Amino acid sequence: MNFVRITRIDDPLFAKTHALMQDVFPPEEVLEFSAWEGPLQDDGLRVCVAVHDGEVVGATEYRYYPDLNVAMTDFTIVGRPGLGIGRFLYLERQRDLDAWAERHGQTPLGMFAEIYDPYRVEGHAFGGIKPMDPFVRREVLSHLGYRRLDFPYIHPSWKNNGEPVTELDLCFLPADDNCASVPAALIADFLTTYYAILPNKPAEWQAMIDALRTREAVALLPL
After folding, report:
1. Global confidence as pTM
2. Which residues, other chains included, contact 9 with Cβ-Cβ below 8 Å and sequence gap of 6+?
């Protein structure tokens, strides 16, 4: 299995990757094909795939913010069971993130991730791929050390239609396992930066950001 970074929408691997995203995620979670041209060329973003026998069998998108010293896992897709894809992507991504931060003389404080609440998306089959079942994914991420940030989370739809999406929790994997909270200002700054690409944000999202700006810290809770 090979770990390959994609940087162009005309890369044949990207068409396969985008199709895999559409198979797995609901429509409001998938950016339209042509809109990926800029992000793929952004050196602050990685879209990497697991290639097995010429096919894209898994994918992960992630980024590191040197100014905030945090990382973000946008998504991880395990397209087939029984190949060790999840572990492969995790290790390759972590190696790259460690090297990325080291170039800036830093060790990341941790990594954010949006995680589906299976009790709110129970009806979604996630492409019928069992490793992508929201119950399975939540437990896997819990085993890795992710914890839920204690505030009602809303994010803008990737359809850029101004609709709020509420079926996810914002979680954080702290580098220090004894960490009990995350500064609220760091969360607000991260989300403002992360969603700058979407101009049509729901009012509920802005209210969430404003509420975070009034807090000192947000507790980390078990998943």
Report:
1. 0.87
2. 33, 34, 36, 37, 40
